[in-house]
Amino acid sequence: MDLMVLRCMSLVYEDGVLVSGSLQALVQHAVPTAVYYPDTAYLFAFLLSSRLFIKPHDLLQRVCDVGFTQQGLQGNDLNSINKDKLGAFVPHMVQLLGEWSETFPYDFRDERMMGGVRTMTHRCIALQPSLRRDVTQVLHNLLNKLTQLERYEEAQAKLSVPPHSDFIPQPTDITEVCHSPLVMAQQLTHIELEKLSYIGPEEFVQAFAKDNLDACYKDLKKTSNLECYIQWFNRLSYLVATHACTHVKRKQRVRVIEWWIEVARECFNIGNFNSLMGIIAGLNMSIVSRLKKTWSKVQSAKFSVLEHQMDPSSNFSSYRSTLKAAMWRSAGAVDDRQKIVIPFFSLLVKDLYFLNEGCASRLPNGHINFDKFWQLAKQVTEFMAWKQVSCPFEKVNHVITHLQTTHVLTETGLALASFECEGPDNSYEKERYKNLKADTQPPPERE
User: Fold this and answer.
1) How much is the pTM?
2) CA–CA distance, 405 with 166 (Å, rounded to integer)
3) SS (H, E, C) 318-347
4) Which terms does the record give in the GO molecular function aspect (predicted)?
5) Burial class (CB in 10 A: 0-12, 13-18, 19+), 15
6) Domain with 313 in it
7) Same-domain status, 112 and 212
8) Do residues 342 and 192 lie in contact, with contact meaning Cβ atoms separated by under 8 Å?
9) Which residues does 297 contact at the CB level (< 8 Å), separation at least 6?
10) 321-346: per-residue pLDDT in tens?
11) Which of 225, 257, 415, 444 could form a disulfide with 199 if both were Cys (CB 3.0 to 4.6 A apart)?
12) Is 446's pLDDT higher than 50?
């Protein structure tokens, strides 16, 4: 029976769309032949989700085994091979490797994976020496991506980020670090886009699949850029709260809070929704919101508008509408400034998590539920477009350094600072303040 017929018999379609299949059939569907190359959208969805069922290096081995075997290339005797019958098979295999390494380069940080790559490329070049240049280019591009990642990780490791502390030796006036809220929003966008650019699409699958993968999870996990990005969001929120609570004079607190609100508004205008939400989260912390005498002097109308845009009610319906508008603007943009879409990242991860939890990965008949993985791939594909935008704004290094490395207060430190700004005004706060002071002692003053 014809190979394509066998393949289709093992795959289930509805209205022309692939909805399920056995792992074997899905692997077969991803393997090129002399006259067939898998659809790009299918290949992305399959490579993204297949790691739930098979490790990347095992998948590469299986693709090679199936591909070379069905072309009658099991042995190593090249003289007995009728190369005229190979058609475009070998170029197709090189193309597959190129697309895989371009989209999921972190899979290739595994020596087992690279061993499979060496075996595959040697066979391809032996069969068609004219492809040597193409193979070299694929490997060169992969090396560049992995080198960039390694340098980025080294730079992040060298960042002198002090742990959150209960006390700050010398509080900083953020408005002196950066006078312009617009410039601050642009520097936040630099940080966001850099961190986004290093998140691999497979990290989303690994993030919500680690409970399912158990022992396999650590074996698959090659990067932690997604976790680092979420840590950055938390740091930004605590940084904003720290700046709001470390000025003894009310007038200064009002000025700093209004300044951060302006930064948030500029982030909204840019399309940087992650920094926007980080700032809102910082200003909405209970230790900041309790400063009623301070907030009574704040011109907070702009903040109310921003809060409405990011209102969590109705599953963030206002934000989702705004995000769609930003995506529409980005899709037709020529100017890089109009292309920027930085989503509220924690919500994106949450959406993907609930998509995973709400749909079974396998159907009762044992087939893989590929309809689920089309949905997953659609959302991750949008993210892939967002993370590839280059930041068009001028970089101000000392501002970026401050945002990433300056001291930030712990929850305890923030609470103490808040009570120092405005004393406790009920019995609960009085008791809490008393306990906090008893549990913490400030460091001795320097002589």
Assistant:
1) 0.90
2) 16
3) HHHHHHHHHHHHHHCCCCHHHHCCECCHHH
4) guanyl-nucleotide exchange factor activity
5) exposed
6) 166-439
7) no
8) yes
9) 250, 251, 254
10) 999 999 999 988 888 899 999 999 99
11) 225
12) no
